[in-house]
Amino acid sequence: MTVGAVAPSGPALSEVVTAPVPRTGAPVVVELGPGTGPFTGAIQKRLAGRGRHIAVELNPRFSDELAVRYPAVDVVTANAADLGEVLAAREIHHAEVVVSGLPWAAFAERQQQDVLSAVAGVLPPHGVFTTFAYVHARWAPPARRLLRSLRSQFDEVVISRTVWANVPPALVYVCRRPIPLSEAPALVEAQAVQ
User: Fold this and answer.
1) Helical pair 141-153 and 184-193, crossing angle rounded to 10 deg
2) Cβ(122)–Cβ(95) under 8 Å?
3) H or E segment at 101?
4) Which of 28, 121, 43 is nearest to 81 (CA)?
5) Cis peptide bond upstream of 168, omega within 30
6) Of 121, 115, 179, which Cα lies nearest the Cα of 146?
7) What is the dihedral of CA 88, 83, 180, 116, to 10 degrees?
8) Tens digit of pLDDT for each residue in 6-36?
9) What percent of the residues of the chain are helix, what percent strand, and what percent coil, each to the nearest 5?
10) Nearest residue to 70 via CA among 49, 47, 94, 44
């Protein structure tokens, strides 16, 4: 339940989730919940030695294994909700891209909101956040809650086509233009009325 997956994400899903990672420049890319590292490898391939890649993993065993496997990645054992503090400790003010492999269905509503607020808080206006959901669970209450939460934190939430090559099939949420904290409560109220 804490991992939230029956198998590691496959190459097809990794490619879609990490597509917003720039192939040029020196971006800061944060990965939340890297687990065994399926997205980590894809991010490293896209960065090709440029920028900074910070992976935030709660499970110390996964963190240790990931740090050995990917020495170029700054692996941090921490809670994703503490993302702002993790970056501040590294004197980083924002991340261009945040990629999530977190098990949203296993999160309580408050946990989900805390993590999404932390993500929105570190992204600049042009920043991008990606995460995924399994197609078979898309209509379950936790998945619907996640989509509502994403729409309360980001001005644009685009849902990808189904990645059928993943086991189980998944879809990716690509979120842009984080909503400033001062405007988020009004948006949540407006959505509740609809």
Assistant:
1) 130
2) yes
3) none
4) 121
5) yes
6) 115
7) 180
8) 456 789 999 999 999 999 999 999 999 999 9
9) 40, 20, 35
10) 44
